[in-house]
Amino acid sequence: MTTMDPRKEKPEEAKVEIQEKPKEVKEGTIAIIIYSMYGHIARMAEEEAKGITDAGGEVDIYQVPETLSDTILEKMHAPPKEKYKMITLDQMVKYDAFLFGVPTRYGNMPGQWKALWDATGKFWTTGALAGKYAGVFVSTSSLGGGQEMTVANMMSTLVHHGMIFVPLGYSRTADLLGDMNEVHGVLEVDPGSLFLGSPWGAGTVVGVKPKDERPTPLELRIARIQGQLFCETVSRVKFKDRSSAAESRAQPQV
Ligand SMILES: Cc1cc2nc3c(=O)[nH]c(=O)nc-3n(C[C@H](O)[C@H](O)[C@H](O)COP(=O)(O)O)c2cc1C
Prior knowledge:
- 35% of the residues lie in helices and 15% in strands.
- By secondary structure, it is α/β, with parallel strands linked by helices.
- A hairpin with a 2-residue loop joins β7 (196-198) and β8.
- The longest helix is centred in the C-terminal third of the chain and has 19 residues, at 217-235.
- The radius of gyration is 19 Å and the shape is globular.
- The structure holds flavin mononucleotide.
- Residues 36-41, 103-107, 139-142, 145-146, 206 line the site of flavin mononucleotide (FMN).
- Residues 30-230 form the Flavodoxin-like domain.
- InterPro entries: Flavodoxin/NO_synth, Flavoprotein-like_sf, Flavoprotein_WrbA-like, FMN_Rdtase-like_dom.
- Belongs to the WrbA family.
- GO terms for molecular function: FMN binding; NAD(P)H dehydrogenase (quinone) activity.
């Protein structure tokens, strides 16, 4: 039996506190924040962003800092990181609406996402994210791998922060999500024939050995619709001036 050298395997600390100077954010701009180890969530994010632009919105895409060591990432055959800027807490709080891209880990968010949320204690106590809007899109390797569970398991975090969940719903996706012609369930036979996503949020199923054909055109279409719908929903809101909102949170009335 080989013994692991704990010093070599120790994960690097999450770099969530590294502060680039936070860039100014135009009111109403939507932040898509993702973690993507193998690129599928990143591809979905691009489509969500197109949907936001289709609906006349503005969008910035960020990624969540890595928490695994290079050694472990190499063992997991993880390709180099995506090109997006790393989210910082200072930057995150400047947005009023978010789409979170979450590849499942045992039906839940990955540790990289959890590390970011675990660093938001100050936001929780001050209500800095309260009343802000959030949608979720997901990725799993299998059909029963936890697409809806992953979104549902995000709820606790959103609720504790007082964030408002915006589902994908069926209003513009009933025919697509209900398209049984594409659900065959055997990836190896016909890689283009299985797609996922649910009214909880767009989703892609990538298979145990991820393939280039994932996400499918249909999954990407649904992701784009989610971007459009999310943007339309948050565009109905007149966001309060951020400086006065932050001030009132800092001085709670008792
Ligand atoms: C530790 C670990 C746990 C995972 N757990 C699940 C799971 O519960 N269900 C599932 O379908 N896929 C599971 N997967 C597969 C990932 O969800 C899949 O690799 C990911 O959605 C691909 O997205 P990405 O290309 O953006 O990284 C797991 C992967 C890893 C590494």
